[in-house]
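Bench log, entry 3. Co-assembly request; chain sequences pasted below exactly as received.
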Amino acid sequence: MEPFKLPDDFLFGTATSSLQIEGGDRNNTWYMWADLGRIKDKSSPETACDHWNRTDEDAELMKKMNQQVYRMSLEWSRIEPKKGSFSQEAILHYRDEIKKLLSYGIRPLVTLHHFSNPLWFEDGQGWLNPESVSLFERYTEYAVRNLGDLVTEWITVNEPNVMLVNGYVTGLWPPGMKNIMGFLKASRHLICAHIRSYKKIHEIGLNMNSGETRVGVANHIRIFDPKTPKLKDRLTAGLYDHLFHDLLIRGMHEGKLLFPVGSGYPYGQGKYYDFFGINYYSRDIVSFGFGDKPMIGRIEVKEGAETSDLGWEIYPEGLYRAIKKYHAVYDTEIFITENGIDDRKDDRRIKFIYDHLFQVKKLIDEGVNVSRYYHWTLTDNFEWLEGYVPKFGLVALDLKKQTRKMKNSGLFYAGISGEKQVSKNTIDKLSGKKHVIEYFISEDD
Ligand code: BGC
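Structure output for the full assembly:
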């Protein structure tokens, strides 16, 4: 590992989502999913990191880690516990949390929707219902009117592609459907919800913060490489790209509905983004064939590749390729809104961070405007279908005692964030060290 420097105005932080860390809320689809026994380790997000009661402690952790920015999300089911009725208590809680962050000099980037829906919304057909668009817009309006004096940077929706594929194609996530028509319908509504919400945030922002508002989407981008140069594999990889990336990205950013979601521009051709958010984790090797219904094509991990504990290929060049690709299309400021690894022993995360940031440096040297890196994630937390088994945190969490303990990778990241560089000192101190977190790994954890 060689030292390298990033620009002084490059911003470092971490990303989290409300459902995965807050705990205590039963009014959302993921609590219901856990209650149905659908989480692999039979756990529930009801406990999570108890962040709802520990916002100060976690903000202090971020400060200690020299973070300049923090990506967090709001839990819709807390803010609007019943259709049309909003909770002042919940919004005041978020105001306090955000004020604390600001007092530490940490700028929040707030996501309105990160995978979880209020139960009343899902009971009313969720994203399949055309009314979902105006319901989401109304929630946006409430959140932004009440927080817009503190928050200028928003993400409307996190990874719509991941949520819709899991919720409507594989059926592994709520609402548990395997229905391509449902996938297309929900995609259309999410695209419209983003555009209406984008416009609404700007409209309110104009009065609240003299137009400094910026809005984007956190796009999950994967690399789909064909297994062989054969036409059928290349076409299959192209199809994945179209269905998984283009449909939602072009819809949400340009307002264009592509086949088979629709056609034309329901809200006019436009620019519905102020930055481009990329969540990047891994790549898939794609070949022609038929998988589990209704899946088309086969996906595998590159033979011999190094992987995370979840079996995802560690492929830092993919971050470079993804950013290059979308920078060429959208030519705007790029935020890496998520990047991280499930690494239980914390023995690969340091190298993972180093290698991915190295790609960022390369991009910046080539003139690409990548300005932020939000590591996924601050503390180990509730990882959706997988429950608490995966460990993505820079900070270890003792679930029972709810104590936090910095990992070596957390110290490494804190060093980089503070100095805007991977210094020789940081490398010497931490890169060869064994992990220190055995303490937290118990049988039933
Ligand atoms: C999601 C996070 C998730 C992470 C790791 C992203 O797809 O936005 O919520 O925890 O990946 O799987």
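The pocket of beta-D-glucopyranose is lined by residues 17, 20, 158-159, 162, 220, 279, 338, 376, 383, 392 (CB under 6 Å). The longest strand covers residues 276-290.
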